[in-house]
Records
---
Amino acid sequence: MGQAVWTGAITFGLVHIPVKLYPATEPKDVRFHLYDRGTGKRVRYERVTRADEAPAFEPPPPAFADEGARRVERRREAAPVATVAAGPVGPEAIVRGVELPTGELVTVTDSELFSIAPERSRTIEIEEFVELAQIDPVFYEKSYYVAPVAGRGAEKPYALLLRAMDAAGMVGIGRFVLRTKPHLVAIRPLGEALALETLFFADEVRSPDELFRGLSDVAISEREVRTARQLVAALATAWSPSRHADLYREELLRLLRAKPAAPPAEPFEPADTAGIGDLMATLRASVEAAKRKTGAKTPRSKRAG
């Protein structure tokens, strides 16, 4: 199952159930790295500024930057592009910014975000129970398995909550903070276990009204409806996830297994440029010293007769 992503407790009324959360899904996408065909080296990405891009706002003076106060940045209307330096940007120099509907740019520091960040939840309190059918699947975001913590007396209240909700056809709605993000959640029976679904908030789900205006005015006869229902009944079957495999991923894996592996590169040892420079300097100094020594000597004259 892997490592739990959260450890805490579910509470409803006075019942306290120590639990752990485990991801219920595991993406199987094939992920590629990027390489330079000419050199065989891995392509990396850097956070950099561009010399041909004008600044979005007037940088604050160092004293203001140290204060970390929220501010609305004044945009540059016509910044001289030639004066903008280009190069890598270190983490300490990066500031987050959001453009407002008015067009103004607001920047915020990490310390400001930390000051309003929600505290990590230790419990998920079930605030209400609703019928599962009332929650449209469009609200489901990510699924987790809820497991009772062993040795903490969690098994009995866990099984009690599971069976009670299963018998009533209800799910529990609550809230908690996972890592640094608040979540609305639905806790529901899933076979012999509990599952937790993180839900999109109401304002995160788009309304389809603007996309499908006029459908209610389309004229459809009862005969057409009956024929369509017959087609639906002819194709009806029990849901079996195993019948719906990712055919593209399987084809991609077959392609990768059939291809020969890229030839490994020759062992690469970086040249000790510092050592070479020192050696060359030493050799040059030795040559100069030898020349001076040779020039200092007076050639012996031959004795006459």
---
Amino acid sequence: MMKRLLATLLATGLAASAFAQSAFTDGEVRKVDKKNGKITLKHGEIKNLDMAPMTMVFGVKDKALLDKVKAGDKVKFTADKDAAGDLVVTGLEAQK
């Protein structure tokens, strides 16, 4: 029984890890608005939001994310809806 439980927990953890990795979306920074905590991204499909590729303005969960990027940077990011239903970038990584 313990082996079955361990196998289930391991499989669940691997599935969660795979999901977290697939949640990242490729994008390109078009504009950074640090004053207002916004970023304009040209992005691919955002699967968790069922959103087609486009260019749009997002708020950011943490304004410090904006210090990591500039216009023209290629990025990987995660986005979700906040409590108010607004779309916000929750994670942002510049690509090298």
---
Amino acid sequence: MALQILAAPGDPALLDLPWQTPLERWPTDQLVALPRGISRHVVRFVRLEGSVYAVKEVGEALARREYGLLRQLERLDVPCVEAVGVVLGRLDTAGRPLDPALVTRHLQFSLPYRALFSQTLRPDTADRLIDALSVLLVRLHNSGFYWGDCSLSNTLFRRDAGSFAAYLVDAETGELHNALSVGQRDYDLDLARTNIAGELLDLEAGGLLHPSMEAVAIATQVVDRYTTLWDELTHKDVFDAHERHKVDQRVRRLNDLGFDVAELSFVTDDDGRRVELYPKVVDAGHHSRRLLRLTGLDVQENQARRLLNDLDHFRAEICEDKREDEEIVAHRWLTEVFNPVVSAVPREWRGKLEAAEIFHEVLEHRWFLSEQSKRDIGLLPAARSYVNDVLSLKPDEQSVLGSRIGSPTEAAAPYEEGEETA
């Protein structure tokens, strides 16, 4: 059987990889050092033409199935890794068959949960991870996707303005339906609780869990937070016909949670005095889409919310006429506020954090310094102080996504004892 690559339009350099060699024996000069979680499959990371890919050896049926599910989830705008292709018909140099491979594009600036702490997982970090995973699970279920193996290990996390955004990284056990039953959602939640408890107990056994934290209790928080969020998304509101402001309140609450309302359905009682409201909720992105439309910046939802707050504050300062075109003001903010802050970072340090995360942290640093000084110290002085006193001490998160194994910048070596699912 000849080598076959089922792939979306992408990098033709995939053909040049050593597909005739078992993945576990790929030469180190082809590989990139990345922090990895735990996986039942062999996974390797490679750099091709400036992009980093994850390659996972898996059976043909599972590879084709996961590739298709990831492509469908991408079309539904669900946070997940991007499926690149499936490689079939692999033979070693002796003509013996090798397992097919699933290729995904590595999510830039993302980290597995084990790489998000240096010594001990502290309660506040665990809370933010659980929040992010709960939101991801709600978004998946709202899209009709049953995960079947929700866990911290099967998730990648990106920093998002002090919080985390979670991305699905393993879909091989998933199923996509028009809608999920209560039983399917409950079973997914029960699996999540069991998996997360096991992962945290593993950290506890290794002395990497803060003494104040109890693994099973933290895992149960996923269910509690999921339930709260799901109820907010799906419950119906009942109000008097003249209380139309409650419609706006409900939409704003959903927007604040990061969800958009595609349409509203109203049902009145027989005398028309009571109204029932059923919102149709779609995936997160209310703030990130607005920021992308105004500035071209494609960032995480919390980052977008923070940047839009600063943009709105800038607009209030410079615009006496509130009817000033929003796109014009956004362009001024981008050139006069955002870009100068990003440019204050030396080029060699721009891989430490995403530009939007740096801007968010500069705003936080400005507030802190202004509180200390009892006066506003200004944005650019705060940016220079942040670069020298804070950013310079941070690990380089983008370089973790790029150094070849054995190179002087091998930043991810401490995390390579496990394997991360593609």
---
Amino acid sequence: MAGRFGAVLTAMATPFAGDGSLDLDGAQALADHLFEHGTESIVVAGSTGESPTLDHREKLDLFRAVVEVAKGKGQVIAGTGTYNTAETIELSAEAAECGVDGLLVVTPYYNRPPQRGLVAHFAKVAESTELPVIPYNIPSRTATRIEHDTMLTLAAIPNIVGVKDSTGDLDGVSRLIREAPADFDVYSGDDWAAFAIACLGGAGLVSVASHLVGDRLAQMLQLVSDGDVPAARKLHEELSPVFAMLFITSNPIPLKASLSLLGLPAGDPRLPLLPATPDEEDRIRRAMEDAGLL
């Protein structure tokens, strides 16, 4: 079942120091922890990694730092997508020089390109690199969805190798898995949907919850692959409160609070995000206690 980047990919949080600067030592420590607990590939500088508030240099520093930790442990996928095709191509080329294994390229946001514009954007990025490219389809953040026929067009481009799907449309995911090339990896972009998408034949999960329950997510996906769907469903149900807790407010605010409770590198989010409120912290702590994490 697992795709070319494995079954459990983690969209890694970006640790910051007390003064708000990038904590590269913390990023390496967190990456090492993830690889030791079920993660097979790490996505660096995605939305969970607060990419909108990372500057160009910081992203490259992060890519290099995590690549260094990943040697012999797993793969690194660089989040290089922006709403500017030329900038995306430039950052992707520099990420390749840092030694990353693949690129996650989000749908251009804010400028809301038409579907033909999406094809042109992703095709230009793909032809500019030899690395495998994974479009990230998340219309709730970008205001634009990569529609089914557009995705099939992209899937025909040799180094566009899969999609991170955060549409919440399980019927659409089922159709895509059925109609896309057999080697096109459809990854769930949402923890809550991972079990269902795995049952539909998906390649795995790009996860937030894997920071906390990576081993259990890996077990759940392996159970689906082995055909033990009832046992996998039981794990999904046990983990669902954790999935819900991580989105009681904007991601990664609850995640960073959770990591701090576990003594893992996190720091506060950067503005315009804020730390969890006392009420949110209480809800996060109770959910983690109920899940046996504290």
